[in-house]
Amino acid sequence: MTAESPRLEEFQQQVDELRLSGGRANPERTLVRISVTLFVISLIIEIFAFSESRGTTNSYEQTDMVILALLGVVVALGGVALFVRASLTRYFRYWLVRLVYEDRANTDRIVDAIEASRD
Fold first, then answer.
1. Is the pTM for the entire model greater than 0.85?
2. Neighbours of 28 (CB within 10 A)
3. Burial class (CB in 10 A: 0-12, 13-18, 19+), 9
């Protein structure tokens, strides 16, 4: 890109003056860690339910293990949902900031072209 225009510098100063924070340095990182933890817990539940259901011939205990396995699937789906949410949040935040920056740069180019055509 070309040298930054005064409008872009003004935009940068306005953003710096806001001093916004999300409360944490990177909230998506925490969500990713939680989602990975949930997925690992679901794998442990699934493995336990499978081994316990194979080790018995009692149909009631096998039914209990099927219910436990379904709980593991629900926990895994929750972990996947958190992971997708964190990934999309990070991507959309980047996309929005980039869109605003490019819009300001395009506006500056149009203003410069109009001013050049007047001269």
1. no
2. 19
3. exposed
